[in-house]
Amino acid sequence: MKRLLSIPVGLLLLSLILCGAAGAQEPPPQPTESSDRMFFPRDTLYGYAQFDLAPPHNEIDPNLCAATAGDFGGVNAPCSEFARYMLSGLLEVRPFGRSLLRRFELFGEPRFLFGKNIPQTLYTWSFDAIGIEHSWGAGIYLGKGFEVRVTQHFLFDRLGARSGNLGAADLGPNGPWGRYNTIGVRKTFGTRRW
């Protein structure tokens, strides 16, 4: 299993400064509460952005190249899509502020991968774009922390010069987990206090 090493110190300080500048805020109301506006209430958007760094010998494997890619050209192997960096995030949109429509949400979750590495062969700090993995969907809050979600996970979109076939070690266009649709139930719990 690949382990990721986050860069928490700088990002944590930046988020604390920004949150402190905005003042202390209460957590957003639960979807069952009514808001002051029917369309696009003040708590319409929720999300986060995250930057991850994978140290050498622990690169992120988006399953685009075979683990033995180094056997097909060594350090010059064309299939070098093992990521050093990942920029990811989540955006949830609740467009309705009142009535039962308040329980409805749309969400998107992209992941951008960067790097040029080959396991056991080539380890660099390159920021070459690899591609984008993304999924999106809709959910309905049922109450008591339960939510039904429908998710569409797309194929991995390769970027730039890496968008074509990269030789014998290329595993094809499927990327992480391929393309799928799911219907799921999510249970949230606890309260977040900052």
Polypeptide structure, described:
This protein has 194 residues and is mainly beta. The chain has one domain (5-187). Helices cover 8% and strands 33% of the residues. It is built from 1 helix and 8 strands. It has one helix at residues 8-22, and strands at 5-6, 45-53, 85-93, 104-114, 129-143, 146-153, 157-158, 180-187. Strands 1, 2, 3, 4, 5, 6, 7 and 8 form an 8-stranded antiparallel β-sheet that branches. A hairpin with a 2-residue loop joins strand 5 and strand 6. The longest helix is centred in the first third of the chain and has 15 residues, at 8-22. The radius of gyration is 20 Å and the shape is elongated. It starts with a strand and ends in a 7-residue tail after the last strand.
Quick overview of this protein structure:
The protein contains 1 helix and 8 strands. By secondary structure, it is mainly beta.
Gap from first CA to last CA:
31 Å
Main beta sheet strand tally, sense and closure: 8 strands, antiparallel
- How many beta-strand elements? 8
Give start-end ranges of low-pLDDT stretches. 1-29
Multimerization status: single chain
Helix content: under 10%
Strand content: 25-35%
Number of helices: 1
Average pLDDT, all residues = 78
Number of domains: 1
